[in-house]
Amino acid sequence: MLVSNSARHPVDRYEIEVQTLEQYCRAAERPAIVLHQRDPGVAAAFKAAGMPELIDDDGLVRAGKGEAMLIGMAVAALTGRGYVGYIDADNYVPGAVHEYVKVYAAGLHLAANPYAMVRISWHSKPKLRDGRLFFSRRGRSSEITNEFLNRLVAEYSGFGTEVIATGNAGEHALSLDLGLRMRLAGGFAVEPFEFVELFEQFGGVLESAHPEVMASSVPVLQIETRNPHFHDNKGEDHVQGMRMQALNVLYHSPVSLPPVREAIVEFMVAQGALAPGEEPPRERIYPPVGSLELDLLRDVLETEAGTFRQIGVAARVTQLRPRQVLPGLPAPEVVTSA
Ligand SMILES: Nc1nc2c(ncn2[C@@H]2O[C@H](COP(=O)(O)OP(=O)(O)O)[C@@H](O)[C@H]2O)c(=O)[nH]1
Ligand SMILES: [Mg+2]
Fold this sequence. Notes:
Shape: globular
CATH topology of the largest domain: Spore Coat Polysaccharide Biosynthesis Protein SpsA, Chain A
CATH superfamily of the largest domain: Spore Coat Polysaccharide Biosynthesis Protein SpsA, Chain A
Number of domains: 2
Structural class: alpha+beta
Distance between the termini: 15 Å
CATH class of the largest domain: Alpha Beta
Number of helices: 12
Order of helices and strands: EHEHHEHEEEHEHEHHEHHEHEH
Bound molecules: guanosine-5'-diphosphate, magnesium ion
Strand content: 5-15%
Helix content: 40-55%
Radius of gyration: 20 Å
């Protein structure tokens, strides 16, 4: 599935993406679903399905990575999928993506648990340094996010740890049985918040709303790949923004502890990202996708979202049934449109 937020003017980049995907689907005999995040019909569908929080002042779904991932998960659910795996769109090496997908499948199989997540820890990120490629083992944002997540784990366990290696992992997959129960954060807070949300809901510190998940535990498999992660370099400001979004969600979590909060504020002030005495801002946290009325979402997507299309072997997509995972959701129906 492609959830795009690419520009449509003056060049319609979205249309180019769709054409490329159509060619791929024809050659590979694979189906795909596409939509544009800023299609007014997509906003109407999420509003109708019960998530008005996703809509901005222009009446469209907010721009942001977490928002795009939420759309992807909802569409996966309404077409009957059991799992969702995410791939960033700015990867320069198709072979690396192939490896991610195999790792997802292997990890979810090995987990042997209905509530499982696989997160990719890439082997290295190449950077240009003095005209040479340097295969750095660490990412500028991940390093910080992981450090503070590990600090939280260490505060609880009493043991220093580096157990969390994938706080910012854009490449990750999970079962929908788990995903539909999780709240997702907006923007670049989305990946680190997944850990925070797992700690909150299933960490055993707060009471869980899902005892059935607690009973089986939630394995998170962090798997290191062989291929380097070669992607678009968006510069220092982008990295700084991403780090702070990660720390904001960790700071405001009810499972965060005073020493961790203090260390976060100290770091932010030292970075010039926070004035002394100020509190870190809050990120947007959306309700679980499982709370959406999926039949309404589908109806409005089909009737109002002009960009929402199924490509390729249509029959294989359309015959799937929406999942009914959480109690209280309306009964699933067969998806009928092509
Ligand atoms: N659909 C959509 N995707 C987004 C948006 N923002 C970020 N992304 C996706 O998130 C990926 C990661 O963002 P990027 O800026 O590359 O961050 P980095 O790789 O962590 O430095 C991008 O490659 C996009 O695929 C958005 O507003 N909408
Ligand atoms: Mg990137």
